[in-house]
Records
---
Amino acid sequence: MFRQDAALSLAISACLRWDVANMKITFCGAAGTTTGSKHLIEVNNSRILLDCGLYQGRRAEAMERNRDFPFDPAKIDCVVLSHAHIDHAGNLPHLCKRGFTGNIFSTPATRDLCSIMLPDAAHIHESDISWLNRHRKRDDLPELEPSYRQVDAEKCLRQFVTLGYERHMHIADGVRLTFIDAGHVLGSAQVILDIDDQATGKHSRLLFSGDIGRPDNDLLNNPAPCEKVDYVIMESTYGGRKHELAAQTADHLCKIIREVQQRRSHLIIPSFAVERTQQLLFTLDRLRHENCFGPIATYVDSPLAVKATEIFRLHVDELKPEASKALFMRHDPFGFEGLHLVRTVDESKSLNRIKGPAIIISASGMAESGRILHHLRNNVENPNNILLFVGYCAENTLGWKLRSGHKHVNILGDEFEVRAEIETLDSFSGHADHDELLSWFDRVGGVKKRVFLVHGEPERSEKLCEALSAKHPTGQVEVARLMQSVEL
Ligand SMILES: [Zn+2]
Ligand SMILES: [Zn+2]
């Protein structure tokens, strides 16, 4: 009798589960590449999107990839956003415009950074389309419409719901969200989803690394560890690569600045407006105080960087204790002597006439758009000038071409010969290098049954995959493919 009841109850629960599929992940972006982060989790009839980033790269391909979603935006229940960088958040306004009405969960600092970064990205997108349309008109082609406008970016900010680090929130049926610090950019988070899968009756913990920061960053805390993890979605930007050490970087940077002072020339630094610029200012201030080089006029020519610096001041509690102390103390590392924060277009144009020595820090970091393009046009052909790259540049971007030693580049429609000296300092990178990724992985506790590598060029992801597979023989480590779906 008992056996019959048990069999009956099993049969009933099997029937009940019939329409409830197992948890499924689909890698809809940043698979086989570093940009366009977007992973869809389907569980208990809910659809949760991790990140909604813009794909960056060749203009035509980027337009194509960003114009459509491989799912119906109206059927997404909520978005969980790891951090404010455009390759993670940049396509949110478009998602909302196409019918997504749910919550966007993020940390408070991520939300504040998005409030300046998303309208800025929308403005760049609209300008790109007008530029293209001018060319299309000449060729008698129909005009294109921007996929979203600044007003859509402003509207989508109303859908944000914020959650501090290490707090918990139920975000869908059987799904609990926790953010922990990723140490990559102000407000950046690793995403923990605790999932009760009604189809299998199993509980599992999924960890999405977001972008993983470096230990011993001047401004940010180290990435936090996580326990009891079953599934990992992990970034792999610098698999197989090693960054310079912080002390070597400081020496290298001082040498470059002294060189520019001697030549009375310009040091042009394409820099991400958020985080990298503040980190650079913090380091320049420290080195200047240590008398590593003499006073030098320093211009931050990016309205976004100037606004982002203000947001850093609002969230000092999320910075490393030493950094927040410095911000509260007498001298201000974001306002040192000789530092000029350039706001208006006229001020920016007047930089064309300044005599060296001078440092110009301007966005964007990959030199794809923004005021940096004008500074590169003005400075790239002078062999006395130095162009310094302090961050990652995605393949085929102008920054990548300059870093890779291209002798001729096209900037805003004109051809230029590259005669300025090119320098790189990768230790400013917000991303952990190969060894740092491995030690992050070591600090992730639990069985780690399956590990999916995302956010990396194929060669980088493969290198990390090899190393992790050797280290973690009890789990399955694999490089995620674009639009691959996995049932768990
Ligand atoms: Zn990032
Ligand atoms: Zn990223």
---
Amino acid sequence: MEDKIKYSNLVSNKDKTNKDKNLKVDLLGLSKSELVNILIKHRLPKFRANQLWNWIYRSGVSNFNQMSNISKDLQRNLSEIFFISRPLIASSQISDDGTIKWLLKLNDGNEIETVWIPDNKRGTLCISSQVGCTLTCKFCHTGTQRLVRNLTSAEIVGQVMLVMDELNDWPSASENRYLTSIVLMGMGEPLYNYENVKTALEIIMDHAGISLSRRRITLSTSGIIPEIEKCGKDLGVNLAISLHATDDKLRDQLVPINKKYNIKQLLEAVRSYATISNARRVTWEYVMLKGVNDNIKDAKNLVNLIKGIPSKINLIPFNEWPCAPYKCSNSLEINNFAKIIMKAGYASPIRTPRGRDVMAACGQLKSLSKIIKKVDRKNTNSIEKLN
Ligand code: SF4
């Protein structure tokens, strides 16, 4: 598997620029109907939409010259009006455990991170939905980076396309595909960018293209109540909730959005989520913070809270980052916590931290360039200290 990854490409498109593309229209990230409409607008036959869709999302082609069932004249015509984007790789880091973190540069110079977590011959891609985040969850490194903007649907799908390029994972939907799951757990709150996330996920799930099942996609939210129900009805992907506390007083501190949408409202929204069943359980994410939320009473409260909801609890050993205000619970506390949950009949996997050595683990994402700038401001000369 590792052989197949084009490691030489990890920084290979660093120097490319999208400058000349600014006047053209990006076809990536357009819904099927938008693609048809843009062809009609440019007086091109709308039946070409299916061909283009197939080339873009089934074959991973980003150059019109490679579209062999389209005449040379039309290829030239298309490339004069349109382009098919990819984010640019600014840098990449490979963890000892095989996890790869890419820092991607967007057209406007902003940066996001995308993390590939391999598991034998398969793997999960953790993608971002915003540049930065508004929600300032106290245990999350991304939350210390202010929100700059929402990602476009092209930038969200683009992360998947780029990683499939890097993994040599085209054509999509093959039996041996590497990228088999996607989690929206990177930078940002996906439900604060709902429309673009929705368009991107519809593209990713489309059977004529990347064709990843809704069962293989997990959207993680800190609890944006009005959008949770919509997401269940529109997309039906798996739902994960960043819970981290069992009472409002503590959750108000750890996940400040709780002051707007409290635990009671959150539970009601989860209960009504369209796909929840014994076969499709909700995942509760619970970061283990030493002396904060990790005692036996918290575990019992958690079990009581989720009673009656088909659930799985992901216990996440806290991944520390520079100047983090918390420490990770010790193994004994985590195991005792897990035992209470399992005794109540819930699956309670303790998540093995992945990519910790390259700051790619859960809650650690933050653009490296931002860290560098911060270090510069503080006038220290040792970025290594942070890594
Ligand atoms: S945990 Fe998620 S929602 Fe909270 S600050 Fe971090 S990225 Fe934002």
